[in-house]
Amino acid sequence: MDPGGGCPHAANARLLARGAVTPVVLPGEVRAMAVLGHDALKEFLAHPDVAKNARHFTALQAGEIADGWPLKTFATVQGMTTADGADHRRLRSLMGKAFTARRVEELRPYVVELTSRLLDGLEAAALEDGVVDLRTHFALPLPMGVICELLGVDEVHHDRLHHLSNQIVATDIGPAEAMAANREMVEVLSEVAAARTADPGDDLTSAMIAAREESGDRFSPHELIGTLMLTIIAGHETTLNLITNAVRALCAHRDQLDLVLSGGASWSDVVEETLRWDSPVSYFPFRYPTRDLTLDGTLIPRGTPVLAGYSAAGRDTRAHGPDAARFDITRTGESRHLSLGHGAHYCMGAPLARLESTTALEQLFDRFPALDLAVPEPELPRHASFVGNSVRRLPVRLKA
């Protein structure tokens, strides 16, 4: 895997031509596997003999993984994404209360108001030629503001948490940087937890602290911080990438944008096709077979770290047809994508991500229907990670 990231689709196509499951080498010469095919990935994500807890990671348990390994946080952080069975159900139960349909619907006025406020500031932030970085001034502060509102995180922490999230999901940084980012993230979130302990509110962090204090064993201190870390990273990075990728796709496919603006398709259609065509997460670490597992004819040895190849699965021609590489918001199908997961670890924040993305796109193009990229697509700087899949900046011209 290229630690520098970049656009994954050409490499994905080459790998998919070889099969739905392939061996890969991670940074630090760590041997792993990636599941790329849509059907194989769907089977793998829900397989009863596949675990998330790093006690099943053979090389890690043997002491072969260095402390500064850039992907180590994905394996060792304590929280829902690294828990199995009863532990996973215990940690997920309280979080589920924050992401019910009712709670998400209650957030709608806040999402609409924040979106409108950010759009008001876009023209003010634009340069004399009308160009503004949409990612910095719109696609980022919207999901970061919403997830921090949900968690009760003060605005003073937002920029720092985004920077640290970027460091944690990066795959091209050195051991010292990786360890420093993790330490600082824990420090910032410990401050957040201390603030909510001293002054509880109607937020998820306060609820998690109350549950821990009332029942003793609901959330350990490490699980609380780990859950906050994962919720902040997943709660804003993926939606940030989703909004960014959707805007890029629509600018490159004006016929699809015209179809939505004329009422021939919905903003929900745009979001779902973007999730398939340009998944906000390319390869997500890790899962581990608890026994030797044969998937689509390929053996994955027990204890191997496995990447879930969401961006590859979204363009798998065997699942999506020979035109899988085409962005088409009228595309139909029983299972359009796996980009929000599948099985027990399906993304709890999916309804919120969909609400934020559809609201953002609808209001953005209603306000600026002629919005377009200010530089050619190939010149947009890519993420330095094979985990996140997007660009680091999105300069757009708001008006023709």
UniProtKB/TrEMBL annotation:
InterPro entries: Cyt_P450 (IPR001128), Cyt_P450_B (IPR002397), Cyt_P450_sf (IPR036396)
Pfam families membership: p450
Membrane-crossing segments per the record: none
Protein known as: Cytochrome P450
Family annotation (PANTHER family): CYTOCHROME P450 YJIB-RELATED (PTHR46696:SF1), P450, PUTATIVE (EUROFUNG)-RELATED (PTHR46696)
Family as reported in the entry's similarity comment: Belongs to the cytochrome P450 family.
Native source species: Streptomyces edwardsiae
